[in-house]
Description:
Largest sheet: 5 strands, parallel
Mean pLDDT: 82
Shape: globular
CATH class of the largest domain: Alpha Beta
Low-confidence stretches: 12-57, 60-65
CATH topology of the largest domain: Rossmann fold
Number of helices: 16
Strand order of the largest sheet: 3-6-9-1-10
CATH superfamily of the largest domain: P-loop containing nucleotide triphosphate hydrolases
Radius of gyration: 22 Å
Strand content: 5-15%
CATH architecture of the largest domain: 3-Layer(aba) Sandwich
Amino acid sequence: MRSDRKEPWETPLPRGDEGGKRAKQRSGVRFAASDSRSRGLRHRLGLASSRKGGRDLRGARLDDGGGLERSEARESSAKLRQMMDEIGESVILSRKTLALSMLPLLCQGHLLLEDVPGVGKTLLAKALARCIEARVSRIQFTPDLMPLDITGVSVFDQRQSSFRFHPGPVFANVVLADEINRATPRTQSALLECMEERQVTVDGEVHATPDPFFVIATQNPIEQTGTFPLPEAQLDRFTIRISLGYPTTEGAVKLLRRQRTQDPLAGLKPMLTLEELREIQGRVERVACSEAVLEFIVAIVEATRNDRSVGLGASPRASLALMRVSQAMALMEGQAFVTPHHIKTMVPFVFGHRLRLDSSSRLKGRSIPEVLDVILHRIPAPKG
């Protein structure tokens, strides 16, 4: 049965009092007008409050001063929609795909683009990088690429009689790792430390990566010649994985018309400065998650570990990624709090590349999206 609820990338930014009322209706949690019904709703969602140190309807403590204001959420949402519009002028993709590709950037994560050749993976990655006034580097992964080609190397300076560190391309705000699965596992592992800990260790010395730090990696899952599949430890460091798919007939015609005489990225201009990006990332962290929502996340994660069809379930890092991406999605929607709908929407993109089915399930032809769909239908979401 098709739902009438619109996604954040499909819904215009709410404005004024009327827009605020529509946003509350879209949030999936309808607030009762009467005090008694409102108190009952608070209790069911785990948001029951007291006069001091209680919780408001958005799940943030009333006395900590750290909750995100609706006006801040709507302001950030407007900027992000403008950024999506700018990228959409250069890259022929659906609004949903554009929104999903921006979420890891907002929650200080990393993005893995996986699809067949020629659908615009590199173009989307370059467009995301250009929309930020930041230092951008690109690494073309090849079988002969070495770890020091990524992290940097210490070179002896004869004048100073000491070693000087020459940073590699990983020391940038946005790093495009193109065709990451063409490098050897030894080279792929050079990204493990910097993606998780935001630092690189060379010759026993620790060097911090710039802030913010965002890795966009692309890979082709079809071609096997000369490729090295990413290990689970590497995949787990990517916040979400998305596939672009082929354009629609209308989009394909628009693509031919637009790129007939000009570079698709020629007119793309930066939409966010580093300071503005850091501010939005800070607001994402302040998006409230109620106890009921947190317990819902944990229930989904534990279900993946206990399901007989799953050989490798979701890790604690996966649960953190799901929470943070849902916070980013809520902010993009102009919301100051996370709802169960945000969680359920993001589960396939956060868990899809992390889970592994057991051999019997693979032989039966089951897929990870199918298993996740069963799990989400089996676990009751907080009602409101």
